[in-house]
Amino acid sequence: MRHLWSRYATGGTVVGVSTKPNKLIGIAQPASPCAPVPSPDRTFEMRFTSTPRGARLARRLAAVRLDAWGMPYGTDAHDAIVLIVAELTANAVQHGHVAGRDFHFRLCAEPDGRVVRVEVTDTRTERLPRRPAAPEGAADGEEEAGRGLVLVSHFATRWDWHPRAEGPGKTVWAEYVFPAGGRR
Fold first, then answer.
1. Is the pLDDT of residue 146 over 80?
2. pTM of the model
């Protein structure tokens, strides 16, 4: 399906938006070997400019896609996943920016809908994410930065990073798992 309206679409196409999943070519494999293969109609991925505008667009498109997948706006799960997307894409822009390079965003849900995975890939190799500790000054609530991965750690069931397979850079991923009985 060709989208002429978006220069951000990966290679001019949106991968995985077809009603004939057996005819799709080039669907990206899950970045982690332990990640299950998502349903093609539950995968959304695009490249965005490495700017605050690109991060904002990724967040908004993720919110729309989650709603289309049956996770309505305003629910705890929707808000948590969108927050994870916002933090990971903002980090890719702020800490993973390389001039002239975009970041790649991927959102996928398992066929049963119990796990939603967010992946953000940038091309910067020397700035790797670290497991966050509570930032100093967090008790007084006056710090405005440095809490992104703390929020991701709180809302995601698990998160990590791995080197980018097809070139320099890294992929930071997070998974949101619905509580037992909390989804369908």
1. no
2. 0.73
